[in-house]
Amino acid sequence: MSDQPTRFPSREGSAYGRPPAQSNKLLTEVGPGTPCGELLRRYWHPIAASKSVTDLPRKVKVLGEELVLFRDAKGRAGLLYPRCMHRGTSLFYGKIEAEGIRCCYHGWLFDVQGRCLEQPCELERGRHRDAARQPWYPVEERYGLVFAYLGPLEKKPVLPLYDNLENLAPDQEMWCTVSGFGSTGDDSLDVVPYSWLQMNDNVMDPFHVHVLHSTFSGVQFHEQFSLLPQVDFFYADHGVCYSAVRQLEGGREVDRISSWLMPNIMSVPDIRFKEGQSDGVSWVVPVDDSHYVQAFVMKMPKGAGGFALTLNGKTWGTMTEEEHQRFPGDFEAQAGQGPISLHSEEHLVTSDRGIMLQRKLLEKQIEVVAQGGDPVGVCFDPAKAVVKVRSGNFYRAARAAG
Amino acid sequence: MSDQPTRFPSREGSAYGRPPAQSNKLLTEVGPGTPCGELLRRYWHPIAASKSVTDLPRKVKVLGEELVLFRDAKGRAGLLYPRCMHRGTSLFYGKIEAEGIRCCYHGWLFDVQGRCLEQPCELERGRHRDAARQPWYPVEERYGLVFAYLGPLEKKPVLPLYDNLENLAPDQEMWCTVSGFGSTGDDSLDVVPYSWLQMNDNVMDPFHVHVLHSTFSGVQFHEQFSLLPQVDFFYADHGVCYSAVRQLEGGREVDRISSWLMPNIMSVPDIRFKEGQSDGVSWVVPVDDSHYVQAFVMKMPKGAGGFALTLNGKTWGTMTEEEHQRFPGDFEAQAGQGPISLHSEEHLVTSDRGIMLQRKLLEKQIEVVAQGGDPVGVCFDPAKAVVKVRSGNFYRAARAAG
Amino acid sequence: MSDQPTRFPSREGSAYGRPPAQSNKLLTEVGPGTPCGELLRRYWHPIAASKSVTDLPRKVKVLGEELVLFRDAKGRAGLLYPRCMHRGTSLFYGKIEAEGIRCCYHGWLFDVQGRCLEQPCELERGRHRDAARQPWYPVEERYGLVFAYLGPLEKKPVLPLYDNLENLAPDQEMWCTVSGFGSTGDDSLDVVPYSWLQMNDNVMDPFHVHVLHSTFSGVQFHEQFSLLPQVDFFYADHGVCYSAVRQLEGGREVDRISSWLMPNIMSVPDIRFKEGQSDGVSWVVPVDDSHYVQAFVMKMPKGAGGFALTLNGKTWGTMTEEEHQRFPGDFEAQAGQGPISLHSEEHLVTSDRGIMLQRKLLEKQIEVVAQGGDPVGVCFDPAKAVVKVRSGNFYRAARAAG
């Protein structure tokens, strides 16, 4: 018998004989040594809310690496490789002390930069302990978040500031979350079970707002999204922006500007169309190739205490499978693409131009890093650490129709 | 050290040093492009009960392919590749409309043959939409079942009729299920977690009825099965039949004829030994290499509402693990062979002749398809679409003892 | 783009750019044909408590092999390859008879040495049945345990006796368990989810007792373990021993001698520091590369009925995840090394000398077996089957300080 069965050409669009499909590995593989993983490792990433980092060590997974995060008794956050360098026991079971974390098995004590301070079962509590070093990563805290840098130390940039997050008014407070809030609108998921690229694609896609969130199963955010906007995409500020102009009654229009910054940072304007600059920033942080968490920071009125979105009057976590089918939101649209979408099957069209610009920029910067350069958006000068955020809802008199 | 540890010859049948075992991949691999998968793709397969196909899309998996099944508002069943051709979101979250199904993400609308009718975020709702086609498969409905054809369109045969399912009497109705009913006798399992071949082997094996169902742990079906029959196996009607003759009291005998039709179709006579032609037909439809569903169609008295078998007085789904051990049935015998049996370890004997005939026919027809031919049992002439079913329990005066 | 992204040297102990880590496959792979698997197959291993082996067949997995264990109606334990040699159905669903076990599917009957006694669907109940043999392994019972030998029959050693388990006093009884008791101190786990080597490493490591069990989160066993002992490691009796001397008040000292015998046998002295020879023996039996069970036999006062350890006043199985973090024990220290530790990352120090001796002996004996020889500790002479166990807590007047 021949090894290969006879294949017939696919006719009339039949599903028979369609070619195997592939994911875009270049943009979805995030582990150590992968091209995109190395690009992502040149930026700071928020990995946890500061208040969740205590004397009880917690497991975190970032860019495919399992790590342990804790706060020592002097208040310093530490991010260490979890396997104790001595015999490999997890520091998840370590005990916090003033100077660091102590392994439960044989008591080796490490500080937040991995220095070994004590080996209690060795002579003189470890005559050679200075030669030992537990692998570690730098962390810094800002806006209520713990940021980590997983790249080469000599390439560590300044942790950026964002102009829209500075200057908190007296009646405001900072709200933050690191979770699946961005895809479900509630606190159901700690981790989102699909590629970071699928959420990243979503942000420069103003058209899905018109369908998924407005006309498919009712208004999810605000009625104004039902109006199909006039959209312009453009590169700006080491990222991509769109301007979506909607004509309102009474001769006015609103220009909704949204922005995405390299490599995974976004600022979406207020979804109730409140006037002015966006109040928040978020980051889509890969956990591994097929999972991510999204960190949000947002200025809020004091005491607001966060919020949750509803679909058909219910929060996402309380809906049945049939309700998820009948009232799908971002989670269903993106999880429906699979753990890692099969990009070879995509048919991108005019309305997908924002995504094409994002991916082209990511690909180009992956190449820059692979060639030994520094990617756009990293800054080594503390004096230039403030990033200007363009995003917002801007109202004005209608211009002449284009 | 040498790479290979010293091995000793297996002595006295010891389990030490036995060779690695293999599955028969030729007959158990069912995915696209596999030899058996291509053979199976030349026939129609029932994939769901018609009444289960509604305006709420459902996931089905057939021959290793994940698909979405729905009924449009005009009543047409549709079977589409689930990933929307635009950006890959699952049509499981699609919305049914009169003309087809609409993707939740950007609203592309497809009919049951995959034609793209609308792209609402594009100019003129998609000036090039006619060039787009969502991959689809043909479906037809009969006997309360939705049948699908997953092969090349130019080789699509006529959907067969079965003579024993035609001419429903006024007091009869058609009962059907697509589930694990055939292995458990109840409605516990939606999908059966082992290879289709294991159930397929079971049907031309009249001897297991004598042991498993009659003498091992008591009578499961009917006392008459306790009699060891005189069995004859033969090829017939593009399949394999057996005739099992049992001598009864009073000088009578019963000839139980069971038949299996290429490639996965069977008609088992009434298991309470009711006289006459079999009332039903079933299909063992592979879900993937290690899972299947069995579709049953059976004429029943009106209002009978289906039935469930019991073992030791309990339905399968209510038994404990120990009860399954002490009162095993088809599920235990077949699941006990593993997700995919290790056929290299089999020792087939005289009583396994039916299985040998089935496998030989399958292998031969796999070769026919691989060589570009049409396998037996497919029919392209609507005038010849009726299949005669031989199966039944036939009573008569005992012939002279052989 | 170049295939490899630029890599930077790891600096300041950063976790960036650390090399991939490996397990020690030589000592952790236990399946058929692996070097360590072949070494382990030259010894008897306890696989179940005798009382758990009944007329209801049970599944056991040992050294990567799935088997079925039962007791025939004459009281003989049998250990067979589970897939019936006829058509592969599991003998887990077999029925026990006087002479052996009968397969549920077609009724083949096998004795405890795999001989086929009946093939009821064949002529004359199997004219060729003597040629059939179900793969089997030898078993013997002692100390309330079923021991199995999975190696080549011609190399089967005598099942050893242990001097400390002989001569049960009239007020004593034998207590045994085959479970995760040795790692959790209670009966929560039937199987322990990490490599046998991790528990094996633990026994010649007297220093972890000082940290993990005594000073890290309070005294788990006995206060005396808080004293850091003077430890000497040495090869003895086809294994490794340590002597740990602690200076007590009043000019006395206690010498705690613990021993490990090839390849996975250990006798730990009474953990409440009771004087005299150890009362028990235990075996760390690999289930597969990343799971094991530990068999314990121990002399106990009659009616004691076993015991359970507590951590912070609770048994292991009733503790929360946070309590496991704050009061870790052997399970956390060893499971924290992962399913199979990454040995290439270890940094063994002076206090790990016992482990180094054990591993060296294992490696050497693996080589002996690979070269065709017999490893140490196997005995073919029934007259020499008694093993002397050195372990115990021995009190005496303090010697001059070293």
Give a quick rundown of the structure:
3 copies of one chain form a homotrimer. Chain A is of the alpha+beta class and 402 residues long.
Report on the architecture of this protein:
The structure is a homotrimer of 402-residue chains. The termini of chain A are far apart. In chain A, strands 13, 14, 15, 16, 17, 18, 19, 20 and 22 form a nine-stranded antiparallel β-sheet that branches. The first copy, chain A, has a four-stranded antiparallel β-sheet with strand order 2-3-4-9, with no helix packed on it. Chain A has a four-stranded antiparallel β-sheet with strand order 5-6-7-8, with no helix packed on it. The N terminus of chain A is likely disordered. Chain A is an alpha+beta fold. Chain A contains eight helices and 22 strands. Chains in contact: A-B, A-C, B-C. Chains A and B meet through α5, α6 and α7 of A and α2, β9 and α8 of B.
Keywords:
homotrimer; 402 residues; four-stranded antiparallel β-sheet
Reconstruct the topology from this structure:
Three copies of one chain form a homotrimer.
Chain A: H1 25-28, H2 35-40, E1 44-49, E2 58-62, E3 65-71, E4 77-80, E5 95-97, E6 100-102, E7 109-110, E8 116-118, E9 136-137, E10 139-142, E11 145-149, E12 161-162, E13 172-179, H3 181-184, H4 196-203, H5 206-215, E14 230-236, E15 239-247, E16 252-261, E17 265-267, E18 276-277, E19 280-288, E20 291-301, H6 321-326, H7 330-335, H8 353-370, E21 386-387, E22 392-397
Parallel strand pairs in A: 12-21
Antiparallel strand pairs in A: 1-11, 2-3, 3-4, 4-9, 5-6, 6-7, 7-8, 10-11, 13-20, 14-15, 15-16, 16-17, 16-22, 17-19, 18-22, 19-20
